Amino acid sequence: MEKSLFYFIEASKEMNFTKTAKRCFITQQGLSDHIKRLEETYDTCLFERKPKLKLTRQGELLLDYAKKVLVMEKDLNKKIEEYNKKTRGEFSFGINASRARILLPETLSNYMEIYPNIKVSSVLDDTVKHSERIINGELDMFLGVNTPANKLLNIKKVFFDNIFVVLSKNTLEKTFGNSADTYLKNPLKKINLRDLSKLKFILSLGQSTTTSRVNEFFNEKSINLNSTIFISDYDTQFDICSKEFAATFSPTLILSRVIERNKCCLSEKEKLLAFRIYGLEDSLSIEFVKHKYFNPPEYINKFIEILEYEIKQTYMDIENYFSIEKNKPSH
Prior knowledge:
Blueprint: H1 3-14, H2 17-23, H3 28-42, E1 47-48, E2 54-55, H4 57-83, E3 89-95, H5 97-114, E4 118-124, H6 127-135, E5 141-145, E6 153-161, E7 163-168, H7 169-176, H8 180-185, H9 193-196, E8 200-203, H10 209-220, E9 226-230, H11 234-241, E10 247-251, H12 255-262, E11 272-276, E12 284-291, H13 298-327
Parallel strand pairs: 3-4, 3-5, 8-9, 8-10
Antiparallel strand pairs: 1-2, 5-12, 6-12, 7-10, 7-11
């Protein structure tokens, strides 16, 4: 990318020439010269200097095009690498931390057997932050959940996650009494809204897509959840649930962590169960997201193929496990 355009993009992020120059390791005068050169080239003013630094409308237009150029240039570099039949390359992939813990170890292990010299940078963050990085040309692709539509994003839906209630067997029996057996004996039974109102819940903090969907659903039903604990980490939520006094919500894929917990040396009463919720169907869309103008090279497409296979296998393992567990006789 032409250097002046690069510095223009960087300056637009902070709206502070001094901080931008320091971060980009150039002098403030050097940065100003690059901006001035662009303004002379396009015969327009790109920044309003007073009372506070901000982009003019022409500056906003140039920024939009500059970001597209950045994405297309990255795409070109990757394509040239491919045409040159190089065995080296690199890409960045975004994913939520909880899903990364489940999916990346096996995915990367299989991928590196095929492409041992490709550098993979995994960025752990939420869907909203990843979307911003894609638009700004700072990320190649990501695994998103209910990604907000944007004209610059290509969103490919690949799976749907349901939302489950997770609780210990002991909590189920203590809270529901005699009706607990109907849930334990029927693997397909969904927890009804009346029974849900009896439980105490742990909810996630921040921009949790699962919590947002849960709140939306229960607001529609005019039901107030009894929730006094808020923790973002699923593993911690599950640990607390095993202590018999609370339940939480989990997407299908994250139930893989419940299976791992249950394999540890826990008593039967501490084992966690998972149940669907009556009326809440296919709540979370799992998607591969890239920039509209980015055409991934073969080595990125292969990574996506391997990751998609790993997701399918994980879903199968989860479905088989909980069907078996729920059919076990209760003691």
